[in-house]
Amino acid sequence: MMAQFEEVSKQSSLHPKPAGLVLQYGTAGFRTNSKHLDHIMFRVGLLAVLRSKKTKATIGIMVTASHNPEEDNGVKLVDPMGEMLAATWESYATTLANAEQEELISALNEIIEKEGIDKSQEASVFVGKDTRSSSASLSQAVLDGVHALGGHSKDYGLVTTPQLHYMVCCENTQGKYGDATVEGYYKKLCQAFTQLIENASNRTDDQKHICVDGANGIGALKLREMMSHLNKGLLVTIFNDGSKGKLNHQCGADFVKVQQKPPTGIEVHPGDRCCSFDGDADRIVYYFADSQQVFHLLDGDKIATLISTFLKELLIQAGLNLRIAVVQTAYANGSSTHYLENTMNVTVRCTKTGVKHLHHAALEFDVGVYFEANGHGTVLFSKAAEDKIQQLAQDSSIDDERKRAALMLQSTINVINQTVGDALSDMLLIEAILAIRGMTVEQWDRIYTDLPNRQLKVKVSDRRVIDTTDAERRAVSPAGLQDAIDGLVKNYREARSFVRPSGTEDVVRVYAEADTQESADALAHEVSLAVYRLAGGVGDEPKPLH
Ligand code: NG1
Ligand code: ZN
């Protein structure tokens, strides 16, 4: 190990830390302009080796900055079952990232001691990257870090974030979750999709057709690869495939959700069913234009509603008494929560923003459907639920209806990527549900009507002055801010508003919804002003939207 540390020191000087740079492992890992990240990547490689030794399992490292602009990059660690890195290790990541060169070895030693890590334990790390121009050299820095500390690596090259999570889970379950190859991923998902759509009656080519905005990123590449496994069960036209446009620029799921308009690079004709992925393909939103050319967005809330309704009905048909719930955040449209609780009678939980919080809450149920409004989400099935479904699907004594439901539940388990939200997998499940239901996007959209809403950002000198409670729905500091928000909300109908510091950008996010778009916009603006005045706004005062 001494020799290993010398190697780390030597190699680390080739990945020097810019003096004074401080970065934090946040909700999305490390994320900033790509030129500041070389030393971070090397050190994340080191940390992954320790995490692998500690868990005696393969760990994943994904190099991506998701929906951020092309100039940015980032990195996230993936824990053994494909889940996000454990919280205590996030702070180790931050410590390592910010250690000066001469402190690096002692920082490593401290983690080794605290965690009681057996240094002789073998370590294995899977690495993936997105299509950013900086990703190639940054993922090489990751590999350098892994090797410097004596870890074994497997470089998957260009993969989506959820594909890397899947690989890690497959590897650590000795193949029970699937085969740890990109081929294995396509086979598992596409076979399940094909089985699901056997339950759909004759679909026309129009019904099978979908337009996909690949955000000029990795999702477009991987969707094209996946199509050969779909046997014409789905007819896909890919836009923003990276051949011309810039990654995430005026396109992708985040753009469409926040701007509430179609991306550039795609013409949305009435009747077309469209969706957008984000830059690393872990988010998806759907949309269409009606006959009046009015744009309709089907976001994560609409997706959660479609999926949970489908699953709830299957569970009833199968005669399975399993607890199903939908997990959302404060950004979930009020109409979706109302519909799920009052019409569908489904349990709804609200957690803080950030996938790990939703994932965690979803684990408490037999079937936990979780989605952020921005389109990141998946379904988790408990071990007990999977076993019961499995048993029933093999039971020869049950009637046809129960059998059919059990088989569909089984295929749903296989089509969904339970490790993390996955645009490719979510798209297949949504397409299958629409096909089985014989449902158009218009019909799906009409299940409930979104309350008009608006999301804004406010720049403040230190966003940490805002502290929140109640799953971020109320601000406890600075003093007077929540009272101000409450006062403003009272002036509008069906209104709701909250503010929180972003975990990924240096801004405070403002959300408002109300009975009309004008009211939602006005309320969002007034709340932005309150934040600007009470929480140390910088730059120009927020301007009204109209
Ligand atoms: P922040 O910047 O903390 O709001 C954003 C998203 C999260 C999550 C993370 C990670 C919104 C309002 N926030 O977090 O939901 O996806 O990025 O990518 O969409
Ligand atoms: Zn993403």
TrEMBL record:
Residues 458-528 form the Alpha-D-phosphohexomutase C-terminal domain. It is an enzyme of class 5 (isomerase). Mg(2+) binds at S66, D278, D280, D282. Its EC number is 5.4.2.3. Keywords: Acetylation, Carbohydrate metabolism, Isomerase, Magnesium, Metal-binding, Phosphoprotein. GO terms for molecular function: magnesium ion binding; phosphoacetylglucosamine mutase activity. It catalyses: N-acetyl-alpha-D-glucosamine 1-phosphate = N-acetyl-D-glucosamine 6-phosphate. Its cofactor is Mg(2+). GO terms for biological process: carbohydrate metabolic process; hemopoiesis; UDP-N-acetylglucosamine biosynthetic process. It comes from the Eukaryota. The keyword Transport does not apply. This is Phosphoacetylglucosamine mutase. InterPro entries: A-D-PHexomutase_a/b/a-I, A-D-PHexomutase_a/b/a-I/II/III, A-D-PHexomutase_C, A-D-PHexomutase_C_sf, A-D-PHexomutase_CS, AMG1_II, AMG1_III, PAGM. Substrate binds at E372, A373, N374, R500, P501, S502, G503, T504, R509. Binds 1 Mg(2+) ion per subunit. It holds the Pfam family PGM_PMM_I. Residues 53-88, 103-168 form the Alpha-D-phosphohexomutase alpha/beta/alpha domain. The active site is at S66 (phosphoserine intermediate). Pathway: Nucleotide-sugar biosynthesis; UDP-N-acetyl-alpha-D-glucosamine biosynthesis; N-acetyl-alpha-D-glucosamine 1-phosphate from alpha-D-glucosamine 6-phosphate (route I): step 2/2. Residues 180-285, 299-437 form the Phosphoacetylglucosamine mutase AMG1 domain. Catalyzes the conversion of GlcNAc-6-P into GlcNAc-1-P during the synthesis of uridine diphosphate/UDP-GlcNAc, a sugar nucleotide critical to multiple glycosylation pathways including protein N- and O-glycosylation. Belongs to the phosphohexose mutase family. The keyword NAD does not apply.
